[in-house]
Known about the structure:
Layout: H1 2-6, H2 12-23, H3 25-28, H4 40-61, H5 67-95, H6 104-115, H7 120-132
Helix pairs in contact: 2-4, 4-5, 4-6, 5-6
Amino acid sequence: MTIDLLSKFQYAEFHDHHEYIYLKLRSENDPGRGVGGLSPEARMAFFDVVYFYQSFAEISIFGIADEEIFVSILHYRILRVWEAVAPFVEKERELRGGDATYLALFEELAARAAALPRTVISDRIAKSRRRRGYR
């Protein structure tokens, strides 16, 4: 399942959507209109990218996959995307009558990514090298 999700990284469209989220979403769309008020281009990028991370959140928080592996790999991207979409998600929750569950798993994933030490990748590499006898 994790491999299937990560396979999205081989598609230029996914990377284009990613860039759109953190470079243009807020400047081209009003967070005060929520997710439902996004332009068609923004909606496509939002659903492609945000639900990608929501899927990772689902499989990690429910213990289906090792959270540390992909959160450490996707750390920076998770944080940037959540930062860009949070105002839209918060407004959407309000528009849905205070539905705090809307994208709550992605929000939790971002919080866990923020709490992860920045050295987790270099620590893993060092541990792997020691285990294999590399210097």
